[in-house]
Specification:
heterodimer; A: Rossmann fold; 3 domains; 19 helices; B: mainly alpha; flat
């Protein structure tokens, strides 16, 4: 590899790490993505000078593929709405995993193609040295051991192991992310494909491991193909049972996995930029996944191997009391005369596209001297921090938005807490009722506020199917209706004062 | 270029520490853009895809290599666009006032 290419890859790796570092603070985040982008452009351009790249057809194919996919991704990425961000991240992530797996596939096919020549050459030289026939030398070489033939023989054991691992992780991340995308995009609702899904998953995984080992020794393309198919199947089977609140965790996990796959394939083809960038993403993504799982109080293994509440059929007793409702206008006026208001948004707010109206309402409250804050649960929305993005889009400055840990103490000193489109993350049962399926999940202590307003479409249970005790609380008033309309009603009421 | 045994393990280890370190103090509000940003960074797989398509020797290798570059370019470009759009919206109170005055 020539010096210019080497140096550019090094520079790109530095830019990626600095970029990610800058992205972890709101002040520098926009600079961060630009640095990383510059690194990507540099690395892509110098790869045209890479000595391994040759052949006019191949050059033309590369340019066509980049232009076509890049153009389509640019177009789709520009026009997608902020609420659809999670499925777009899942989609792009799946593509990365697929690319890593495809790289492994090409390398394995190349190894299989050069294998007979390799054996032939070695047999000929052995025949010349030992003064025996070429056939005898070939037989002797074959008898010598599995290490000298098969994919591992052609690639080297270390490269073969990492290429196989990367291929498996990449195929799982590819098909799994596509399922996650389909589910988030509402194209797929099923949570089970075959009866006894969990046992089937274990069997498929075991088969994939077996064929992974066979791939190491094989000189048959069929074995390699079966191995890839098993990886794809396993990815589908892992992602299908996962629903609702666990989705952010699984997307984050697939993101980390793709990073790892890219790092491993980087080793397989001797590309240091891929090794470093892939491993950094793998580690960062793993940490992010852990943070998320911790916020939900769900160990990763639970997320992966159990559907939400599928094993625990226990129904906790229905809450006592009844829901009391209030009109949007009265709710708005009540808040206009409050001193401290905290707004707790959930994904339902985004679905109703109510964030702009809510922000308009908050600005009116601020003009009247009301202190308003936003409280965000770590898993509000469909990805960690998704709600922040949606609020930012509506124009809410990030210094008004607080994490659960920072604001939970303040609910007790708050006049009105407004819950809009959130449910499980404010359910006191998670704190008080050990028989509840969501018991143990940290929640926002909304029920400690003096008054609670819940803006909600209907009276049903939440994402997890658990009844929310908050709605029946003594200090709770329900504002039934579409989030956007309710917010509009509150705006009118405050304007009319 | 080959990166031999232990040197490669050192690179993997140090890169993993860098990844943990870079993300360890990130505020929750940036989790989604950061996930999207790291999603963009593994789009570097595009250079590997270019190399394997570049040295493809048979039609089937060219087809799979072509798919690799297609997927990888989609990952890189799409990841960049959505991340940039999300981060574009993060503004503090001061910046927002400035923007309104302009």
């Amino acid at each position: 590899m020539n010096f210019v290419v080497q140096l550019s890859y090094l520079l790109a790796a530095v830019l990626f790490i600095l970029g990610l570092k800058a992205m972890s603070s709101p002040r520098t985040a926009r600079k961060g993505i630009m640095w990383a982008g510059a690194g990507m452009v540099l690395a892509t351009l110098v790869t045209f000078l890479h000595p391994a790249v040759h052949g006019l057809t191949n050059y033309v194919l590369i340019v066509i593929a980049i232009a076509a996919a890049g153009g389509l991704a640019w177009w789709s990425g520009r026009r997608v709405g902020m609420t659809e961000m999670p499925q777009m991240v899942a989609l792009y992530n799946g593509m990365g995993g697929g690319a890593a797996a495809a790289i492994a596939a090409v390398e394995m096919l190349r190894a299989l193609r050069t294998l007979p020549n390799d054996l032939q050459m070695r047999a000929e030289s052995l025949a010349a040295d030992a003064d025996i026939s070429v056939q005898a030398a070939t037989a002797a070489l074959r008898a010598e051991g599995a290490g000298s033939v098969g994919i591992a023989g052609a690639l080297g054991a270390d490269v073969a192991i990492l290429a196989i691992l990367g291929a498996f992780i990449g195929t799982v991340a590819f098909s799994g992310s596509l399922i996650a995308w389909a589910k988030l995009d509402g194209r797929m609702k099923r949570s089970q494909l075959v009866p006894g899904q969990q046992i089937v998953n274990i069997v498929v995984f075991a088969l994939a491991v077996l064929f992974g080992i066979l791939t190491f020794f094989t000189d048959s393309a069929l074995v390699v193909a079966v191995f890839f198919a098993l990886g794809l199947l396993f990815g589908v089977f892992v992602a299908v049972p996962i629903g609702g609140a666990d989705m952010p965790v699984i997307i984050s996990l697939f993101n980390a996995l793709t990073g790892l796959a890219v790092g491993f394939e980087g080793y397989a083809i001797g590309n240091p930029a891929m090794i470093i960038a892939g491993t950094v993403v793998g580690a960062a993504g793993t940490l992010l996944t852990q943070l998320m799982a911790k916020a939900m109080n769900r160990p990763i293994t639970n997320v992966l191997f159990a559907g939400w509440g599928s094993s625990e059929g226990s129904t906790s007793e229905g809450p006592e009391g009844e829901m009391k409702d209030i009109s949007a206008e009265d709710a708005g006026i009540m808040m206009a005369y409050a001193e401290r208001v905290i707004i707790v948004p959930g994904y339902g707010m985004a679905v109703a596209q109510a964030q702009h109206k809510i922000w308009e309402f908050v600005e009116l409250l601020q003009d009247r001297g009301v202190e308003v804050k936003f409280a965000i649960h770590p898993v509000a929305g469909r990805m960690p921090g998704h709600m922040n993005v949606l609020l930012a889009e509506a124009g809410v400055p990030y210094d008004m938005i607080f994490d659960m840990e920072d604001i939970n103490e303040e609910f007790a000193m708050t006049d009105v807490a407004v819950v809009i489109g959130a449910n499980d993350v404010v359910n006191p049962a998670a704190r008080d009722d050990p028989s509840s399926p969501i018991y143990g999940m940290p929640i926002l202590n909304v029920d400690e506020a003096e008054n609670v307003m819940v803006i909600k479409r209907g009276g049903g249970a939440g994402f997890s199917g658990v009844e929310n005790h908050l709605f029946y609380g003594e200090n709770t008033r329900m504002v039934f209706g579409d989030g956007q309309k309710v917010a509009g009603g509150m705006v009118q009421a405050v304007k009319g004062l | 270029m080959a990166i031999e045994g232990f040197v490669a393990i050192y690179i993997f280890m140090l890169a993993a520490f860098a990844g943990f370190e870079v993300i360890s103090r990130v505020p929750v509000i940036l989790h989604t853009p950061l996930m999207s940003g790291s999603n963009f960074v593994h789009g570097i797989v595009v250079v590997g895809a270019m190399v394997v398509l570049g040295h493809a020797g048979t039609v089937i290798e060219q087809i799979i290599g072509f798919i690799a570059v297609l997927l990888a370019a989609g990952n890189a470009v799409g990841g960049y666009v959505v991340t940039e759009r999300m981060l574009e919206m993060f503004k503090s109170k001061d910046e927002q006032k400035k923007g309104a005055e302009e």
